[in-house]
């Protein structure tokens, strides 16, 4: 009996040891992204990469120029967003953005750098480069988020140009909308185009930025997900970053970008993490997801990229290896 017990005990010990070793190896797999730190990247040659929501060629061009010249990821995403903020034909960002229901163009933006610093401005009028203002909040104030008049005063105090952001064509669109004044919180899936950008530079550092005029004909004072840390944008330089576009209320309620980064930290690829974040929205009880669009893009520390949307026709731009492309995203609601 004693001999049998010894064999049994040895077997239990061996099986136990095997199980512990197996669990440890699983665990190290699940956090493998976290292991790709700047230290380990120093020995590898980093291929700079930038991605941006929708198809804004000027933005990807401006951001890629910064990276080609060896600039930082933060400079790249800022310059990319600025290109669209200055584009009066884009009615969802910067000058020419569609106004709220009272006819005021109000802009929201945020940035996050590789140190995990964050700066944002919300409800800003008469200043088109709100992405740069958000960066100034992050770098030159003790605060993270400034709103409305206070943000405008800060902008004026540091010499930001003031101008009327309501262009003739956006004013005309608003006047036509006013005839019926039909505000539908359930948005048309073409009615939004926030630009969110994520970049990794030659040092392997990741930063992100997001800028928008928010939903057209929104209630005065409405703020969406885009300037809110963890919702519209989140960056963790040890893991990766994510940015959102679409119906901000739904992204806010699921803290989508933070969720994606945390899922990547647990071992999911950017693609898997974006899909899971969209499923959180569509699987909510009584979700009317068929009536609105939400889209995510994400990048991890290895430079892998993912994207996913509820509806078809979301796309993103990518620059890497000297080439820019527009890629149609996969989506949940298949015909
Ligand atoms: N996410 C933005 C917002 O809700 C809208 C957009 O993506 O255009 O303000």
TrEMBL record:
Q: Which SUPFAM superfamilies match?
A: N-terminal nucleophile aminohydrolases (Ntn hydrolases)
Q: Which PANTHER family match?
A: L-ASPARAGINASE, N(4)-(BETA-N-ACETYLGLUCOSAMINYL)-L-ASPARAGINASE
Give the highest taxon in the source lineage: Bacteria
- An annotated Gene Ontology molecular function: N4-(beta-N-acetylglucosaminyl)-L-asparaginase activity
The positions making up the signal sequence are none
**Gene3D superfamilies annotated for this entry?**
(Glycosyl)asparaginase
InterPro entries in alphabetical order? Ntn_hydrolases_N (IPR029055), Peptidase_T2 (IPR000246)
For this UniProt record, the keywords arranged alphabetically read as follows: Hydrolase
Protein's name according to its UniProt entry:
N(4)-(Beta-N-acetylglucosaminyl)-L-asparaginase
Q: Give the Pfam families listed for this entry.
A: Asparaginase_2
Instruction: List the EC numbers from the record.
Output: 3.5.1.26
């Amino acid at each position: 009996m004693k001999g049998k017990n010894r064999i049994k005990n040895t077997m239990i010990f061996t099986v136990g040891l095997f199980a512990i070793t197996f669990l440890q190896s699983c665990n190290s797999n699940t956090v493998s992204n976290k292991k790709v730190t700047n230290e380990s990247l120093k020995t590898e040659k980093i291929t700079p990469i930038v991605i941006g929501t929708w198809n804004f060629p000027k933005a990807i061009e401006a951001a890629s120029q910064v990276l080609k010249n060896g600039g930082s990821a933060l400079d790249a995403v800022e310059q990319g967003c600025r290109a669209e903020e200055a584009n009066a034909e884009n009615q969802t960002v910067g000058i020419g953005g569609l106004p709220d229901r009272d006819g005021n163009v109000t802009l929201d933006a945020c940035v996050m750098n590789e140190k995990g610093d964050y700066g944002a401005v919300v409800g800003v009028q008469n200043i088109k480069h709100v992405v740069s203002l958000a960066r100034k909040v992050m770098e030159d104030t003790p605060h993270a988020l400034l709103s409305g008049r206070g943000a405008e005063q800060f902008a004026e105090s540091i010499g930001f140009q003031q101008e009327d952001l309501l262009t003739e064509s956006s004013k005309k669109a608003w006047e036509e909308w006013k005839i019926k004044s039909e505000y539908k919180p359930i948005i048309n899936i073409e009615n939004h185009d926030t630009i969110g950008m994520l970049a990794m530079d030659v040092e392997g550092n990741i930063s992100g930025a997001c800028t928008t005029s928010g939903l057209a004909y929104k209630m005065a004072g409405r703020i969406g997900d885009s300037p809110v840390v963890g919702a519209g944008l989140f960056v963790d330089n040890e893991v990766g970053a994510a940015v959102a576009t679409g119906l901000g209320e739904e992204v806010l309620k699921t803290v989508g970008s933070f969720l994606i980064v945390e899922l990547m930290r647990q071992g999911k690829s950017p693609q898997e993490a974006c899909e899971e974040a969209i499923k959180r929205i569509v699987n909510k009880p009584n979700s009317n997801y068929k009536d609105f669009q939400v889209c995510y893009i994400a990048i991890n520390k290895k430079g892998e990229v993912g994207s996913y949307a509820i509806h078809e026709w979301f796309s993103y731009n990518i620059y890497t290896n000297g080439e820019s492309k527009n890629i149609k995203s996969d989506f949940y609601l298949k015909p």
